[in-house]
Amino acid sequence: MEQQSVSVQPAGLFRNRVFRAIIVSGLFLQMGIWIRNFAVLLFVMEQTNGDAFAVSMISVAEFAPIFIFSFIGGTFADRWQPKRTMVWCDILSAISVFAVLVTLIFGTWQVVFFATLISAILSQFSQPSGMKLFKMHLPEEQIQAGMSLYQTMFAVFMVLGPIIGTFVFQSFGIHISIAITGTAFLLSAIALVFLPPDRKVESDAAVNTLWQDMKSGVQYVLSKKELSLLGLCFLLAGLGLGFIQPLSIFLVTEQLGLPEENLQWLFMVHGVGMILGGACVMMFAKTVPPQRLLLFGMLVNGIGIAVMGLSTNLWLTLAAEFINGLMLPCIQIGINTMILQRTEEAFIGRVNGILSPLFTGSMVLTMSFAGVLKKEFSLVAMFETSAILFLIGMLFMLPLYNQKMASNTQQVLGSQE
Prior knowledge:
Blueprint (H helix, E strand, L loop, with lengths): L1 H6 L9 H32 L3 H28 L2 H25 L5 H26 L2 H53 L17 H14 L1 H20 L3 H8 L7 H21 L6 H21 L3 H29 L5 H29 L2 H17 L1 H20 L1
């Protein structure tokens, strides 16, 4: 209770020291990540002449660590001090990127996969710590608005990131691109230094073993119906997204018959939609429940994916991509708000560490076979299968929607006691 009274800032989110530091850190991280992602993608496309398997392995390197390390990272995030964890993760990410750069200069080109892999592993320890800081320092009534602003930042980079990443790679090459990525991670660490000092948290970390903490996290998720159903939704949506995540570039080159560089424009349209969607969610943050945002966003995105798979017209594909971007903040903000509002602070890391692998693990599973399946089936079949799985996942949210609408008032009253 003492912590809550300190964290409430009536003057607004941007007067919150923690929120400002996380936003500035996020800006540097997004800059580095987008430059890295597009540099690696275009570099691998050059080296392999557009081999679908090689391209899909980039996404595997990015998302596989989430499946493998997320639960462990989330458990440690509940045991460790969040500021120190985030700073050291960014520093180690920068060191690993510079090590990859040195190896790339004197070794083989395949090492670029490690630039994505290592930082993705470290982010599994850093990301849940950031969620804990939101829970610790933002009052509950500001969480959804804070998440809206945070996701809007990601949306801005959906527009600018592909353009910047493509420009940097084409202008300076892979070596400079990787160097900029490492520098951006270091700047993110510097921004996080301005977070308030970690407070000493009384926990069972000194008594319980790591295994006991992990076990209690699983029991906590299973004891809450909303979190369990959210996990089933994550599982099916992840399976669906895995089919299409590594194949977006082939949607441009094969379905639309355009040069590969035009992928950046699909990302740009998607990002514009995300910016507008995030702004809309901010406007209605206090009136629209997060479960309603999530349901509506999943329904529309499922339809949008189906349209993209069938379309051979550039403008129809762009329109579907825009609508998907418009609805994506509803999904992201709805999910994060539900997790933060319905999870005790001591379990934030573990809940995030359990739900994320369900989504990402299933996505990595289908992603790993996406390049092979594309050769056996049509690109259209891949996108339509994804849409169907996405809509089935949405159905699991219907009981959650009804339950939360009925119990929301009771839970809010309970939290005020």
